[in-house]
Write a structure and sequence with these properties.
Number of domains: 1
CATH class: Alpha Beta
Helix content: 25-40%
Number of strands: 8
Distance between the termini: 25 Å
Length: 329
């Protein structure tokens, strides 16, 4: 594969997996998204967090735990590095002392990424970061469909009197007109709340809310097939909060809730996005200080790889539109 025109992850046969570059999947790094189909980038932020801190360390730990991922997807047959130019473009230089300023920095950074036509996959970082990303996405693509996987709805009006926080991003994105309300899907919501309205606010906007109890003991492949039909060709953003998983699988996060999804269901959700018009995705809320075995970051790294695999058809479609050639799929 050394003569491929596409970047390749550094092979474990060429360099021990405990060595090599500290990039996502040990891919080449570059400073911008120029020339890329897909880019990995991190947002090392936890200043929007309301409970356990540590997600500012998430991107680095996810990169480290991605070192075992190989380029070919044995389950789906996807081979992203045979079709896509991918690199790690580093981290967004946020301001760790000013959350509101960081929101503006993130939005500006993603405008620049999207100007190159690259599809960004983000390593978080607390969930506040999805709001400015969606702002940049809407400026580029118009309002987008959303698949939001999480234990929490993240639609608070405010937290401690502040409108920027990891419990508020989707309320802010809705206020700014970033979302296609009939194509928003929240999966895995659960736990305690202050009132039924905590989950019903989204429903009142026309969103589809699938609580965790509806997912117990079943495959989510049929759900994703239904979502696929409802979204159609609309541009769609995937936001995956690791706390959607039960803490038995992913304890390393700030706001754990019992009764969550399994890793198998998480894979079904992400793999079920293949064929959609994906314009970006994120994996957020990994907190290494609460992840002593590293398993939470391992899951996060693999889920981001699965997102990359799901992007293949989306980038094929985008390339076809750009060249005026009908996609082959």
């Amino acid at each position: 594969m050394s003569d491929s025109k596409f970047n390749q992850p550094l092979s474990g046969n060429a360099m021990p997996r405990t060595g090599g570059p500290a990039t996502m999947m040990r891919l080449p790094s570059q400073e911008t998204a120029e020339g890329l189909d897909v880019c990995f980038l991190g947002i090392p932020m936890d200043i929007g967090t309301s409970n356990r801190p540590g997600t500012r360390l998430g991107p680095r730990q996810i990169r480290d735990e991605s070192r075992m991922i190989r380029p070919y997807n044995m389950a789906t047959g996807a081979a992203p590095f045979e079709h896509l130019q991918v690199a790690d473009i580093g981290d967004v230089p946020i301001n760790l002392f000013d959350l509101k300023k960081s929101v503006e920095i993130i939005a500006g950074h993603y405008r620049e990424v999207l100007s190159h036509g690259a599809l960004p996959l983000t390593l978080g970082g607390d969930h506040t970061l999805t709001w400015p990303i969606l702002r940049a996405m809407a400026e580029k693509h118009g309002p987008v469909a959303l698949i939001h996987v999480d234990a929490h709805s993240d639609t608070n009006e405010e937290m401690f009197g502040e409108t920027a926080a990891h419990g508020c991003p989707f309320r802010r994105a809705w206020e700014e007109g970033c979302l296609l309300n009939d194509k928003v899907f929240q999966i895995g919501l659960r736990g305690t709340g202050y009132a039924a309205y905590d989950f019903d606010w989204g429903r009142s906007q026309g969103w589809t809310v699938i609580q965790a109890e509806e997912c117990w003991h079943k495959s989510l492949a049929p759900l994703m097939a239904e979502i696929h039909k409802k979204i159609g060709d609309a541009p769609v953003y995937l936001s995956y909060d690791i706390d959607s998983l039960d803490p038995a699988f992913a304890p390393g996060t700030g706001t754990v809730e019992v009764g969550g999804l399994t890793t198998m269901q998480g894979l079904e959700i992400i793999r079920g996005c293949a064929g959609l018009n994906l314009v970006g995705g994120d994996l957020v809320e990994v907190s290494p200080p609460y992840d002593p075995t590293g398993n939470t970051a391992v899951i996060a790294a693999n889920f981001l790889y699965e997102m990359l695999c799901a992007c293949i058809s989306a980038r094929t479609r985008a390339a076809a539109v750009a060249t005026g050639v009908a996609p082959s799929e």
